[in-house]
C-alpha cells in the first residue's frame, strides 16, 4: 500500500496527531483546573461533534439564537488542544475568557485523569456507530488539506484503520478509555443515533444533566435550528470559511445520516469492525444503532 502519512504527523501513545497539536499543549490541557460549572465535550473525530456542540451550547446558554447565529461554534466552544492559527493554542485563548469554560477535545481520557478524579467538570462523551464514523472520517481525510487530502481508495483507508494509523488512534481503544467512566455522575454519554431518532428525549436528558430548563418554544426553536439543512447552510457551524477544507471534494457536513456505511463496507470489513465492537462494547454494556 502507498504511504498515506500526512504532512508533519507525529505519534503520541499510539495516537497519530497533526502538527497543530503539540506535546506542550497536551501537557497544558492535562494540568488544566476545571470546575463544576465547566463543560468538556469529548469525542472521537467525525462522530457528530459539531452538531452536539451546537445543541449543548444552546441548552447551556438559554437558547441564545442571536449569539449562535453570529459567533462561530469553534469560538464559543474551542477545540482545546488545537492551534487554530498555528501559533497560539486554543487553550491559551480560552484561559483569557471568563468562566465557565466550554471546550471540546478529541483526546482520550488518559489526558484528563486529574479532572476525572476531581469529579467536578461536566463531561459529555459523544459516540457514533463505528462504521458510519469511519466512512465520515474517510471523506474528512479526503477534503482536509492538513491531513494531506487523502488520495487513496476506501479500501486503502480501511487498511489505515486496521493498522491503527488514523488520527487520534483506534476508535475502539479511544472509547474504551472514556466509557470506563460512563457511570460517574458528572459524565454523560450522548449517542449520535439518539440525536437522530429521539432528539426531544436527548434534550430533556441533557437539560437535567446540565441543571438547566427551557420553555417548549425554545426547545422547538433548537430542534429546528439543528436540522441537517439548517446546520449545513449555517456559516457559524459549517466551516466553509476554512481554506484547509476542500468543499469540492466533500462538505464538512456531508450527509448526516445513519447507515451510509452499507455503501462502502465489504462483508469482510464489516466482520472486522463487528468483532471489535463486540469485544469492546459488550463488556461495557454499550449498544449502538447501525441503521
Task: Give an account of the 3D structure.
This is Sulfotransferase domain-containing protein. It holds the Pfam family Sulfotransfer_1. Residues 37-281 form the Sulfotransferase domain. This protein has helices spanning 23-30, 49-60, 65-68, 73-76, 90-95, 113-118, 130-143, 154-162, 171-179, 192-197, 199-210, 216-225, 228-232, 267-281, and strands spanning 10-12, 15-17, 39-43, 102-105, 122-127, 187-191. By secondary structure, it is an alpha/beta fold. 34% of the residues are buried. The mean pLDDT is 91. Strands 4-3-5-6 form a four-stranded parallel β-sheet, with helices on both faces. The protein has a domain at 10-128 and 168-243: 3-Layer(aba) Sandwich (Rossmann fold). α2 packs across α11. It contains 14 helices and six strands.
The chain-level mean pLDDT equals 91
CATH architectural label of the domain at 10-128 and 168-243: 3-Layer(aba) Sandwich
Number of strands: 6
What is the strand arrangement across the widest sheet? 4-3-5-6
Our count of helices gives 14
Classified in CATH, the superfamily of the domain at 10-128 and 168-243 is P-loop containing nucleotide triphosphate hydrolases
Enumerate the spans where pLDDT stays under 50 for 5 or more consecutive residues: none
Net shape: globular
Radius of gyration: 18 Å
* Pattern of helices and strands: EEHEHHHHEHEHHHEHHHHH
Tell me what portion of residues adopts beta-strand conformation. Answer: 5-15%
Could you estimate the helical fraction of the residues in percent?
A: 40-55%
CATH class division of the domain at 10-128 and 168-243: Alpha Beta
Major sheet details: 4 strands, parallel
User: What is the CATH topology of the domain at 10-128 and 168-243?
Assistant: Rossmann fold
Structural class: alpha/beta
- Rounded to the nearest angstrom, the distance between the terminal CA atoms is 31 Å
Domain Sulfotransferase: 37-281
Keywords: Transferase
Family: Belongs to the sulfotransferase 1 family.
Protein name: Sulfotransferase domain-containing protein
